[in-house]
Amino acid sequence: MRTQVGIIGGGPAGLLLSHLLHLEGIESVVLESRSRAYGEGRVRAGLLEQNTVDLLTEAGVGERLVREGLPHDGVQFTFDGRYHRIDMREHTGRRVTIYGQQEVVKDLIAARLAAGGAIVFEAEAREIGGLDTERPYVRYVEGGVEKTLECDYIAGCDGFHGVARGAIPASVLQTFDRIFPFAWLGMLIAAEPPSEELIYSHHPEGFALFSMRAPKVTRAYLQVEPDDDVKNWPAERIWEALRKRLGQHEGLTVHEGELMQVGITPMRSFVTEPMKHGRMFLAGDAAHIVPPTGAKGMNLAIADISVLARAFVAHYKRRDSSQFETYGPECLRRIWRAEHFSWWMTTMLHPLMDASPFDKKRQIAELDTVMNSRAGRTFLAENYAGLPLAPWR
Ligand code: PHB
Questions:
Q1: Which of 21, 36, 28 is nearest to 2 (CA)?
Q2: Residue 166, Cβ neighbours under 10 Å: how many?
Q3: Of 83, 99, 137, 200, which one is the catalytic site residue?
């Protein structure tokens, strides 16, 4: 099989790239290691920046998102018995939207298939080669048979555990990372969330986050030990921790309901440079990971794709290949700012179990400073709602 752009990974990044290229008449093939049902069913991120919503809408895949997504003008915080709300609209003129990653994936798959696009499911990429030639290729296994996809360029959108990053020689690959000494226990609950907006709660026993997927579906998270196990968290312990960590605030109640999915997510920061090697580009989680506290992961992946799609359009439409060289540096500036924001939100909101009494007081003072300063609230809101993104074409 031969195409112009070979895309490894059928998550939001790979699928959106394929869709944007198609809008400009550029061919691609997406190789996805899992089944269609897996990608469409797995609960993952859920918060879209204004930029992401605008890009998906402009690209013609935002119809259901605009209809079913839950737009939020504010974000809420509790700590030390206090409650604060930051009005993002007031501070930035922007808002965020709750819409699950798997819904974005469903919309993109539907758009690609309707346009006759090629997505090969259950196709496991095994080897990437020819990156220094004009004929790079991906060898993959589909239904037990080894096949080869030949292309002009390769986009590695295959996530943190994918094979693409490993095709960059260790001698040129730099990685920067940090693992946090806690994890998140995430659960999907068949009940109304405490508020229509997200609540980030700092509590001496640990952080908690109250999000949602629908008006009657809560998505909540609890800070747990890094090596914790779902088995240590029977329902009663979950309800008690959620109630305690939210604290008592007028109008905010934890509603119990069926616990539909419970899982543990590690917390890490990770960046790899460069994002281009020969004829391959990395995008999304293949190149960088943020802890979920800033809700930046999927948004960053989509921002990478807007820059990469623009570079391919310049190359194929105008024979201008200069943006291939600026792709990495342009993305990395935004990535590092998001890394900083995610690290800052994480360290400000999660107590360390072995923190000194001084550090415990200092952490509360930091939250107090941010919430009670117009500049502090604006800084948080600007980054949370998303830094402006240049158009992709
Ligand atoms: C989610 O709804 O899954 C979510 C929202 C905000 C975050 C992290 C996760 O910061």
A1: 28
A2: 13
A3: 200
Active site includes 137?
no
Residue 100 Cα to ligand 1 midpoint, Å, equals: 10
Q: Which residue(s) pair with 118 in the sheet?
A: 29
| Residues 128, 138 contacting (CB under 8 angstroms) | yes
Cis bond upstream, residue 357 (ω within 30): no
In the chain, the domains with their CATH numbers are 2-70+98-177+268-351 (3.50.50.60)
Ligand 1 centroid – CA 301 distance (Å):
15
Instruction: Dump pLDDT digits (tens) for 216-243.
Output: 999 999 999 999 999 999 999 999 999 9
| Cα(60) to centroid(ligand 1), Å | 25
Cut 0.85: pTM above it: yes
CA 19, chain centre distance (Å): 19
Bridge partners of residue 217, in order along the sequence: 214
Asked if residues 250 and 124 have their Cβ atoms less than 8 Å apart, the reply is no
Q: Parallel, antiparallel, or unpaired: how do β-strands 96-98 and 47-48 relate? A: antiparallel
Using one digit for the tens of pLDDT, what is the confidence trace for 350-368? 999 999 999 999 999 999 9
